[in-house]
Structure formats: C-alpha cells, structure tokens
Amino acid sequence: MKLNLLYILGTLLLIASVLCKKVEDDEESEPLNFQVMHKLASQKDFVKRGDITLKSEKSQIGKYKGVENSGLNAKINKNDLYLIEVRDNNGNTLSSSYTQACFLLESEFKDEIVLHLNKEGKVLFADYFTEKSNCPEEIKDNIPAGDAFETSVRVLKTEQGQRPHLASLTFFKREQAKKQMTEKGFFGKYWMYILPVVLIFLFSGGN
Amino acid sequence: MYRHKRLFSFILVILLVINSTFALYKDQVGVIDWYQAHVGTPKKAYFQKVIGRSNLIVATDHNVIANLNLKSNNIYWRHALKENDKLVTIAPLDNFVVSLSESKSSNIRIWNGQNGYLVNEYVIESANNENAEYDDLLIQNNNIYALIHGKTIVKINNVSRSQEGKFDLQDNNHSKLFLNSKTNEILAIGKNNKGQLIVSVLETNGRIISEKTVSNIKFEIDDVFFTGEKLVLKNFNNKLYTVDPKSGSSSTISYEDVKELVHVKDNVFIVKTESKDNLVKINDSVEELSAFENNDEGIISVFTNDADSYVSKTSVSKKESLVVEILNANTAKIAKAFEIKNDYSKNGEIVKVSLDSYRNKDGVVLFRIFTVTKDGSIHLYKESNLVWDSEESLTNIVDLKFIALPEITKDIPEAIKNNENTGILSQIVSRIKFQLSFLKKSNDNHSQNSDILKRDPYGFRQLLLFLTQKGKLICMETLTKQIIWTRFIGNDVQNFNGIKLTNIRSSAVQYPPLVAVIGTFDDNGKESSIIYSIDTITGENYQYTNKNVPSVAKYPYKVLQTFRLSNEEKEDKTRVIALVKSETEVDFYPNIPEVIDSIKEMEQPIYFNLNDKIGGNTLRGYKLYINDEKKPQIDYLYKKTFPENEVIISYGFKEPVDYVASLGKVLGNRNVLYKYLNPNVLAVATVKPHDVYTSVLSIYFLDTVKGSVIHHSYYEGGGESSIMKPQIIQYENMIVCTFWNNGAPLEDLDTKEAKKLKKNIKKGSQIVVFELYESEIENQKDPNHEFSSFHYIQPHIESKAYLFDGIITSIGVTTTRNSITNRELIVGLDNNELQGIHPVFINARRKITPPSNEDKQEGLLQYRPIIPSSEKSIMNYNIPVVGVKNIVSNPATLESTSLVAAYGLDIFLTRRTPSNDFDVLSEAFNKPILVITMVSIVIAVIYTHIKIKSNNFKKVWKIQPADKVEKAEKKDK
Description:
Chain A has 2 domains: 26-157, no CATH class; 163-207. Chain A has 4 helices and 9 strands.
C-alpha cells in the first residue's frame, strides 16, 4: 500500500516537473520586437510610429505601443497613400504595406497590422488594414502621432501544406482487398456448374 | 460426342477470355470533337527511299521525327521525343532513319523508315554535358558513326546491331564528320576556342592518324566541306581555301567574292556570288561548269543518289509565283524550270527547300519541292502543283481566343444599323425586307463560308483564333475544323514576336467581333511594340469610324504589360487597351481625348501588376489614374519580394469567363458557407532548394490590389521535375495546384522521424485543392456588400492533397454560360491523354472519416488520397494528343456545355458536359411516343370537352337520355 502511494506520488512529481520545465521553456523564449514606421507616399522619409512586441514566436497576437510626436504634418489628398514599414530592432526593413490615407480618417485611426511569420519565426510580410475602407466627404485632419492610433496586431504563421493522407489509403486498400475476397469472380461463383461439364467432357468419349 | 467435346472446350476457352470492356462506338468518334496532329517546323528535311518509295522525313523544332505522306496531308508515323531529350540530327540509312538526341545521355536510335518502329537504341553515357550540341552522324554502308559532345566517336554496326567502338578525340570542339571513301578514313572537323580549324583523321577502327590545327583562316563551321580529298572552306572575307586534312596545309583559291558555298557532291559545288550562282568544280582552282539562268535571290537545294545529282534554286521574293530552276549536276545543264505559288501575305517568304527527284512509270524524271515558309508552315509541290500544305505554325501558339459568332454577319440594312438616324417606319420596313430576303437566301444554295459564320442555336459554332509566336493568325471554326482565314502579320515588321490577343469587342448584331493583336518587333535595332485591330470575321484590319484611331499602331518601346480596361471608344464601342511603357508611363489604344475623359470619369483607379517572370521573386503593384492635368499617372503601391532562395515557379491561371452562379455552398444541413470571391487573388508557387528534402514548394495567395498575403503554405519535397512543372488554376473560390513531389529524404532511414516522413511524403504527382470561404462559421457573411481589397477578411481555407497517377503537363477547367453546371478540372498528361476530373473527387471538404448523412446530402465522398482514373474520364479516348501545353475553355449557349481546346504540338477540341446534358433531350428519348401522347391527350380533351358541354346543355334543358325517358314512361304507365 505504502509502495503504491509512493509510486503515485513519484508520478505526480514527475508530471509536475515536466510541466514546470515547459513553463520555463516558454518563459525562456525571448520576446520579439519590431519597429513600425510610417509616411505619406508624397513624403521622403519614414518616421517611427511605434513598436510591436510579440511575447514569443508562438504568439498569435502582438502588442502595439505608439510613439509620441510622430505625426505626419501634411495636407491629405484623396489619392494620397499612407505607407507603413515594419523594421527589426537594427532598423532593417522586413516588409511594407499601404492603404489610402483618407481611410485612416474615416476609421478614426483604428487599424490592424498583420505579421506573416515563417516557421522559424522570421517576418516574411506585413499587411496593413484600416477598420473602414472608404473616405470621408471632407478631408481635414493630418496623420496624428503613433500613440493616437488604436492598433491591433495579428500574427499569422506559415502553415504546413496538406499531404495526401496515406493512412486512409492503407485502410482503403484493406477494405478493397476484403471486398475482393468477399466478391467472388465468375469461376468462383459458377465453378460447381462448370466443373461437372468439364469433367464429363474430359472423361467421356475418345472412341 | 467427340465433336461436341471439342465444341464445348472451345466455348469454355472463349468463356475464359471474356472480360468486360468499355469503348466508344466507331460512329461516336469525332462527333463532338476534332483533332489535328502536327509535327512542328522542320529544321532538317530530306526525301528518303524506303523499300523503293520516296518518303519525306523531317526532324522538327518540336523534337519530332516524322515520315510525312507525299500524296496527302497526313503523317505516316511520328515520334515526339520528350522535352528533355533534345533531337540534334537525323540521317538516312537504307530503309531506316537514324536519330541522335541529347538528354542526360546521348541517344542513338534506329527507326524503321516504313512504320516508324524503334529498331534499336544505343545510350551513350557521358561524364559531363559540355558541348552537347556538337553532335553529328555519319553513315557509311551499314556503319553509323556518331560524334558526341565534339569529342567521342561511337561506331555502330547496323547488321550485327552492336556498338563496335568508342573513340575519344583530343579536342572536344569537333562538330562535323566526313568520310574519305577512298582511304576509308573518318574526318572529324571543328572550330576550337581560338577560332581555329581542327581536323582529326581516324581509321574506321578508331586509330587516330593525325590531329591538325589550321590557324590562319577565320571561318564559320557551316562553310567547311570535304570533297573526298581536301577540305574546302569559305572564310569571313568570302575567299575560298583548300586544306589538306592530314598535313593541315592550306592554300587560297582565287575567285570572286563568294556569298555562299553549297556542296553538291565530291568536288562539285554551287558558288553564290553577287551576280550569279555557278555550278563549279573545285580542285586547286575553280572550274565553272554552268550557272542558273535566274539571277534573283534564291535558296539552293541538292538532291543526290547513286545515279543522279540535281540542284534546285528556288527564288525567294514577295511575288506569288516563284521560279524553281533545276540543274543536272552530272550534265551541267538545266534539267527543268517551273513556277510554284506561295501566298506571301499568308505564309511569308520561303526559308527552307528540299528537293526530290524520281522517275515515273515512263522513266521521265520528275521533281518534288518541299518548302518551309517564314511563318513555320510547310508545303509540298509536285513540280508546279501544290500537293498539300500544313499549318505547322500552329505548334508555336502564344495565345488562343474563342470568338462567339454574331447572329447575322452581313447585309444588315442601314436603317437597322443606324436606328438613331432613321424613322421607326423605315426601320420596320427594312426589317421586314431583310427578314424576307434572309428567308429567301436560306432556301437558296449559298456559299459554305456564309453558312459557317452564323451562330448556331446551341453556341457550339464559334471561332478559334490562334496567334503564333512568329505572327501568324489562324482563324478556325469549331464545328468543322475549317480554316476561315489566315494572315501572316510577321511580314509587316522585322522579327515580330507575338505577345497576346485581347478581345476588344464581342459580337453583336451590327458589329463584328474585334480582337487586338499585341506583339513586339525590331524597328531598326530598337525594340518596339505593335498593336493591330482585327476583324475576326474577315481577318482584315478594322477601319475605325473615328479616323484618328489607326487600325495598326506602333510604339517605340517594348511594352512591359498590357491590359484591357472597362472603358469603351464611343463610336465603335471597342474596349480600351492600356500599354505600360515603364513604371511611370502608360499609353492607351485608342489614344484619343475621349478615352482619357472616360477614364477620368471612373471613380476607382485601375490597379495593375508588373510581376517578375518565372525564375524571379518579386511582385509589384501600381495604381493608374488620370490626374488633374488630364494626364495618365502611375503610382507605385507595393513590392512583395519572396524570401531568399525562393523563386517563382508558377502563377495562377484564370479563364477570362469566370461567372459565379451561387455566392455560397449549401451544406447538407441546409446551412450555407459563403464563398470568398475576391477577384484580385493571385496564386503564386515558389520553390527553394532544401538540404533534407530536394526542394520545398510554397504556395502564396496574394491580393494583387493591396499586396496583402491571404494564405501561405509550404510543401516539403514539392517542386518540379524535368517533365513536370507546377501548374495552378483559379476559378470561383477554388485554387488547384499540381506539382511534383520529390518524396521524403532517403538518408537516415533508420530514424523514426525519417520512417514517418517516408510514409507521409510520397514521390510523384500531387494535386492540392483549396476552397476559400468568407468564414468557417456557417451562414456568416461579410456585411460589406461590395468587395474591397482594403477591407480585411481572413478567409477560411479548406484544403486537401491528392496523389495523381500521371505526369501533369497542363491544367484547365470547364466554363459554362452561368456557371450553374459543375466545373470539371481537365489535366493534360505526359502520356498524351487529356483527363477530366469530376469536382466530387477534388472536393476540399472530403472527410477522412466515413461521411455522415449530412455529408452525403452535400454530395461529399469519403476522402481517398488517390484521384481515381477511368477510361470514361479520358477525353481524347485513344487519340494521342501530344505535347499539350495549354487547355482553355469557353461556354456554349447551352448551360450544360463547355467547349474545351487543348493545344501544344497537336490541337484537340471537344465539348464537355460535367453535369451531363441536363438541358438537352437524350438521344434515346422517344419523340414519336411524345407526339402520340400529346395528340391523344388533345383528342381526349376535345372529346371530353364536347361531352361535358352536351351534358351541361341537357342538364340545363332537363333533357334526359332516351332510355331513362322510356323507363320513366313505363313507370308512369
């Protein structure tokens, strides 16, 4: 009895240690940081708008924090494009995206950045969307600083493509074989009629 | 009884071999389909006697060896080698044809000249693939000497059918073999890297006698000939030289400027000079024997056999009649002169000629001329009579368009055409007159063409317009395969290179359908572009009502991209074409102010892409609009570069007609999954090499307006093979990708992981199907009524992968008028078959578990990893449709039917009904019974109607039937 209790206790301890190790592993993976730059297409240089932080490579959402005094002081026209760039901490451009500048005004600066990560956790592409995709009748405002944006960050990871499910093939083949076994062929079905005729003709006559 | 025993045994044997078969009836073949076999444009052609009869043997630019019928336009036999087995040369050997081709190995094949059967094959492995084009064949009696990679000579004995030797030369730049029949020595000549002539002399047993280099002559290898004793060559300065092959010593021959040197036999040559084309003998000096009388520009062709030697000169000009002059090289006299006809506007000038001489029953010498014209077509003449011609230009198609025919094509009265300017009464009178005349005409026997160019009620009759790379337009009719018209626009400009066809006006009662032909050309060394507006009914340039719009427009730049706009030129109602000159400049055709105004009036800008070609890795997006200064402006939008090492291997193809009948998919539980119908989705496949797997294939779905990535998935082992490239087709909310999987890595087979991979990743063809829905949740639809690429929706994607037993070379899908009918996937296979795959087999929603009742109601089959193939699904039954590169389809008027055309080397056209002929009465339908039933019902209705009427009359007047009256009277009594 004592032995059994010890055995259960030991098992529980083992499970607990494995779980702890997993949590530690998660904690060990470093957060990923990216810079978000923005500008209007007519402007020359990008201005830093904010930062994105992903807790880990496995995160499905990210956290955006805007930077103060990063507004774009320029008159917006209907055809103006608003560009964003996602850079790594060293300032290397990873990807860029755009939208119509006037959409930002109609959306009241509510937007979404979608990061596409490969299986190693490296950013392949970034996409940028505003909440609404139409222009206000009157375009008045400028593009505000990064902290005025209400930005959500979504992370999409590259999927492993579907493979032919071969296990179902083995199952299918087995089923087929069974079916073939049960389904008799022509001779299997009518051998009892054919055999006597063959035997009769084999052993009769000859003279 | 003994006799009966034999009979019964025979029946028994017959019973044993009985097996069920599936086949078409003979009269079902070619009813709804037609087929046209081609060989390609010959790069080498000669006449060869096989069992005493002349045969025309060709080796073509499409890797085809063929024997063409000399009496009619058909092929005795042909062999299309695989794309990776490049045919280098062919040579005659008695009744056989010897071919030399290069793949990973050098392949010498001996074919039976009469039936084309492969008699023997010799595969010569080489250490490397260097100088693979430096191959030649030399036939001596029954021995074949093959020069391989400019270095190795292989000797094959055709009697013992064995390889007798393989000799290596020092230099690997030899490219021609000659035979010295006097000394029985082989000469291998070539041009080394320094541009010097190299001559190696060998004995037939392979012993090298001498290897010499001649350094003082600059020449082209095609200008070197062997007379039997000496080499004769023409240098860059048009001077003649002789070279002794053994000593390597050269000497000049004094003669006037030689434009071209053609070897006839031994030391007899044709020397083309500025003024004359002479038949000469070359020893240490030139001895003139004779000359052609016609001094125009011409092509020399030689025919020699043991007894006769003839040389022909075929004049090359734009004239319709061309002079052919034939010299007898033995007698140095003109043997014959005649004229042949070549339609320059349809074929261009003659570029290649082969001569044949034969004797008829009376012993009279007659000649055949086989010509290849600039467009790529071939023609056979029996002296001045054209025996046949074949549109081999159709093997280089760059684009194909289906053109719907107008209901009435001509003789439409002005009052109907210009209804705005005429009164209603005159319109009515004109219409009645026209209909009466039309009725009268239909009773008369009128020309075949006018019959063909009318739309049939089911829309099976359409026009197929082909554009070839060299600029030939061929218009065929879909029902009868008849060529309506041809035109060679490659004549108009230098080095025309066809890009595409664009429909700029569809057929209407008063307007013929128009297409724009877009191509590039060489304008005195400058790459330029050209656009033609062509009336597809006549093939002529369309004359616009607005005189400022030219029917042919030239642009002094090479277009990067062209696309059709939704705007129309108002007078002729033709669609506008945008021609992108650079990333910032664009032109419009027609380029008139109204077009600019109409584009400016559009609310939405025009989005377009400049994507890298296959092998690149970047997509770029742009926006085009008319700015406030009324000038077209292009704004750069985005650039999407795929990760390092990844190269684009395939782009998704969409049929121009892609209607969607239903916005959602109705499930078994009567709920709906709404389709993600983004018109801007482009599927792109990239491939990158991989250490463990051979390669990894990635599939991206991108929105081309926004540049956003909708989906990305990767396939370990996926990629391409030498015979199968990835193909993608997009339709409705479906994307289908086919590719070759190189399989799991073969190393470390012992590990558990490797074993699992080996089990999961199979080598072979794969089909991956994607279905895109707006949401995973049933009945949930995007609230935005109008689709916008700027509005974010992450579609729910269902995907399944299937193994396919076949090498897929092309992919297409059926299209119908309203897309109510199922869409059938069509794949062109390496084994020359076209297979239709029913949508139930490539449904991405098939489940691995047995289907539930709801799944069954939805029509879902249980998932199987292999797509089944049956004889019924082979569209071309037993006809081999070789080298299919593209499959296109177009709807017929009947909703059930789609016209499908497959082209590459051969052309095949058929009608497909993926949901069966639901809108057509079946052939088995009993029409007399229907008529009898209808008539009976009508009679019955009339009879009962009369009966009821009479009863009612009697009731109203209280008239009782006579027998009842009698009974009543009796009762009363």
